Amino acid sequence: MTTINVPTREEVSPTNQAIFDNLKKSLGVVPNLYATLAHSEHALGSYLSFQNSPSSITGKAREVVNLVVSQVNNCEYCLAAHTLIGKKNGFTDEQILEIRSGSARFDAKLDALARLTRDIALNRGHATQSLVDAFFAAGWTKANLVDAIVAVGDKTVTNYLHATTRVPVDFPAAPKLAA
């Protein structure tokens, strides 16, 4: 069995070393999953550009997408990371668990986003029309729809990377959902 290591700064290209330095300055650490992207000369920079590009889905809404998609894809790494980030964005533990289950009844607009995001992730983009209609009825726009789908793609990349590489999770574990 081939094991995918988490590369150190010394094991990556000079371009990725500079990115590691910037991540260390801004986050205090280079998360293992980001470091794993640095096995490629281009993937880490490309992914960070994609992830940090302007979007109308930001803050709490972005964390709704991140948590829902990570739950659908059963990504323990991203669930751990985004549980922590979700708390930093003001969600309670109970709200995070509800979001992960695909709803957010505590906020009608976020609920429409969570339900549609779960449907998109489960059905590989083939969204149920009634959930798209509910998304728009909740006050979201066409731009929001496109940006939400891009956010689903963003999170799917890291979910799949972790599922394939199984690098160690370097965030506190997310609680399990009740069955």
Please characterize this protein's 3D structure.
The protein is mostly helical and 179 residues long. The chain has two domains: 42 residues, no CATH class; 107 residues, AhpD-like, CATH 1.20.1290.10. 63% of the residues lie in helices and 0% in strands. α4 runs antiparallel to α5 and α4 packs parallel to α7. It is globular. The mean pLDDT is 97.
Overall SS class: mainly alpha
Radius of gyration: 17 Å
Q: What's the mean pLDDT score?
A: 97
Strand tally is: 0
Helix content: 55-70%
Multimeric organization? single chain
> How much strand?
under 5%
H/E series: HHHHHHHHH
Give the class-level CATH name of the largest domain: Mainly Alpha
The biggest sheet amounts to:
none
What is the CATH architecture descriptor of the largest domain? Up-down Bundle
Q: The CATH topology of the largest domain, please?
A: AhpD-like
The CATH superfamily label of the largest domain reads AhpD-like
Shape: globular
Question: Which spans of ≥5 residues are poorly predicted at pLDDT below 50?
Answer: none
Distance between the termini: 32 Å
Question: In summary, what is this structure?
Answer:
The protein is built from nine helices and no strands.
Q: Which properties best describe this structure?
A:
179 residues, 9 helices, AhpD-like, 2 domains, mainly alpha
